[in-house]
Write a structure and sequence with these properties.
This protein is an alpha/beta fold. The chain is 41% helix and 20% strand. Helix 1 runs antiparallel to helix 4 and helix 2 crosses helix 3. The chain is elongated, with a radius of gyration of 19 Å.
Length: 205
């Protein structure tokens, strides 16, 4: 299977299915149908069948999907059947919140380092992490082979910091800064700007 050939919109929906299936599994449910899964996530049964069939045949006509099996398969497809180490750049309010968030590990991610350039923050503890100097970031990230970063810094320094992350070998960036980043083709960026999402919602109010 060539990951590049799967439409991005399908990949975006897979974690939604994974979360819903995990909820069902936590409630002791062993099997589900595309209809039932669709109702729980607000996506049509036909769309779910089409999305999942891009990766193989995981269900049986008349009996639906085995939840433990489909969970394993989706984790494998999304490569969260392992634990990915992640760094946070920016030890402000958002960086603090992400560093303390307990929900990452259950979903395949382990925050291992946090960096900042503010001398008053360097050396301070946030949970189990100690804020490190951004000047050491390339060396530290390269040595540990980390590929994923979360960026929680002001927009004005986001591009420069991204360039540093790319030099360090980071291939995936979750960007909370309200700015579009220029990255090489082999680096993926996802944008999370709460204000943008709020603006989208107010259109419907």
């Amino acid at each position: 299977m060539n990951a590049e050939k799967i439409p991005d919109i399908i990949i975006t929906r897979l974690p939604v299915y994974l979360r819903a299936l995990q909820r069902m599994a936590d409630n002791g449910i062993k099997t589900t149908s595309s209809q039932e899964l669709g109702e729980s996530v607000g996506i049509s049964a036909a769309q779910i069948r089409k999305d999942i069939s891009q990766f193989g045949e995981f269900g049986k006509q008349g009996t639906g999907y085995s939840i433990p099996y489909l969970l394993d398969k989706l984790r494998e497809i999304l490569k969260v059947d392992r634990l990915w180490d992640v760094i946070i750049v920016g030890a402000g309010d958002m960086g603090h919140a992400l560093a303390r968030y307990q929900g990452f590990v259950d979903r395949g991610f382990n925050v291992t380092m946090i960096f900042d350039n503010d001398k008053s923050k360097i050396g301070h503890k946030i949970g189990d992490l100690t804020v490190e100097d951004i000047a050491d970031m390339i060396e530290r990230v390269k040595a540990s082979g980390i590929k994923i970063a979360m960026l929680t810094i002001p927009a004005k320094v986001a591009q420069e910091t991204t360039d540093t992350l790319v030099k360090a070998g980071v291939k995936a960036i979750l960007n909370y800064a309200p700015i579009s980043l220029n990255v090489p083709e082999d680096v993926k960026v996802q944008y999370i700007d709460p204000a943008t999402h709020l603006q989208k919602m107010t259109y419907y109010l």
